[in-house]
What does this fold into?
Amino acid sequence: MHPGLAEPATKEEWRRYLTATPPPAPDMPSPTEYHDMSSVARAQFNRARKAHHSAGVLVRTPDIERLHYELHRRLDVNRYQPAGARRGKVIDGPPTTGKSTLVKLFAADYENELRETEPERFVTDEGQEFVRDYVPVVYISIQAQTTPKDLSIAIADFLMQPYRKSATKSEITTLVLRAMRIVGTELVIIDDAHFLDVSLKEGKVANDHLKYLANYTAATFVYTGHDLEEGGLFLEGSAKSRATQTAGRNDLHRVTPFSIGTPAQAKEWVGVIASMEAALLLYQHQPGSLTRHHGRYLHERTGGSIASLSSLIRESAIEAVNSGAEAITREVMDRVTVDKSAAEHFEKATKLRTRKRNPPPARPGRAVEAPA
Ligand SMILES: Nc1ncnc2c1ncn2[C@@H]1O[C@H](COP(=O)(O)OP(=O)(O)O)[C@@H](O)[C@H]1O
Ligand SMILES: [Mg+2]
It folds into this structure.
């Protein structure tokens, strides 16, 4: 799968996402062969290496494995449950913690497994009165200030269901509910649900709408977003303490940036770095040097965000090719910039460390004598 693709907005784009493959890793010629290459051959080879580095690797972190397992179990429980609302999942966490990646990876695994084990369901019956095109997964990435009607429209667009321009919210909603029933939708992912308009007036409407959708389909709903709990989406009106049925019938999972406070946490962090390091195609890189020597530095640079880590390592790999360093060293990483919030985190962490190493003099006013 190619992690760099734009979010799929229709079932056809989703199917392309399912089958897209990242640029393959080119074979590494020996250092002598590399040295003796013509400049054109070397440029081609380096372009292929950089494409591979640019795509990076998707790491199946322990958190991802845990949540995938639970999502799978929830879908199994829900599949043949009699009519009525099914329990869904809410995945809540700050931006860049890998939520979209996690849910898309799950949905892709889920559909690919169905395609492999039940291929007959994916055959379209052209001879029938209408063509039934099995769509087990609906993935909706919400944009800023989406109203309930926009959400129904996004589902209709995903299913490529035409609707009249003048259609009302309830007409389009009825249409998509019917369509999801016909095409056998089992999983609906609402990504970035915090963008649903939950201003006081719309808030209750958005909640009721989500409830309505979930009530009248056989699908399991999975929502991602940040501050969903506090944002009022799953709460009634302005009284934030009163949980709605939506809150009641979905379990909440929190995702957070990586910590390295305990040995177990540090081990998970280092494991992620190791997976990324293993994909490097560089001539001078000491295997394992990032995990052995730079785990803490990488945590300070990225604040434990997997997005910042991926970006820092991928860009450093490209810098290592371009500069001829052929290794990701501390110097190479220092030359690469990261996003603003990670950079701020680094600044704070370094200041804190400098202060710890050089504590201010115990009694102010008395200069510490410099050693002779
Ligand atoms: N498991 C992962 N392995 C490697 N890179 C990841 C992983 N999860 C996220 N990333 C990187 O972080 C970026 C942002 O992740 P994303 O899932 O969009 O975060 P969120 O939805 O929480 O904001 C991705 O485009 C990818 O480059
Ligand atoms: Mg996201």
About this structure: Confidence is low (pLDDT under 50) at residues 236-243, 362-372. The chain has two domains: 13-55+259-356, 62-254. The two ends are 63 Å apart (CA to CA). Residues 91 and 224 are 5 Å apart (CA to CA).
